[in-house]
Design a protein that fits this description.
single chain, about 130 residues, alpha+beta, two-stranded antiparallel ribbon, about 45% helix
Length: about 130
């Protein structure tokens, strides 16, 4: 049931033909718009700052090394070492965030060596 506060309902008589009721939806429309804007801003922030990685045991947020809208969602459950080479930025971010369990046991050693070589391109020297 949709309820309005009493201050939003106005009743008036129109030339003796009965009573008309007017609802003021302005506040509701503005609040829904603002909720949508805030939700969109939060989603864009997450999409540009994190990879959403689906691993064997759930979803993980992995901080991106460069803030862009590439590779927002990656499903790694059936990845082979060749798949990881196609997603170097995600692999480097996983190694940087110490979430290597997302890489999988079968691909960890060969991948770790190849990503270590590429890793220097994504992380600035400190």
């Amino acid at each position: 049931m949709f309820l309005l506060p009493a201050s939003r309902i106005t009743a008036y008589s129109s030339a003796g033909n009965g009573v008309a009721i007017h609802f003021d939806f302005t506040g509701i429309i503005v609040s829904r718009f603002l909720f949508g804007v805030i939700t969109g801003v939060i989603m864009m922030y997450v999409a540009s700052h994190y990879h959403v990685v689906r691993g064997q045991d759930g979803f993980y947020l992995v901080p991106k090394l460069t803030h862009n809208l590439q590779e927002i969602y990656v499903d790694t459950r059936d990845f082979s070492p060749l798949d990881w080479l196609d997603h170097e930025a995600v692999a480097a971010a996983i190694l940087q965030s110490n979430q290597t369990h997302l890489l999988g046991e079968s691909t960890l050693n060969p991948l770790q060596e190849s990503v270590q070589n590429i890793f220097s391109n994504f992380v600035p020297n400190r």
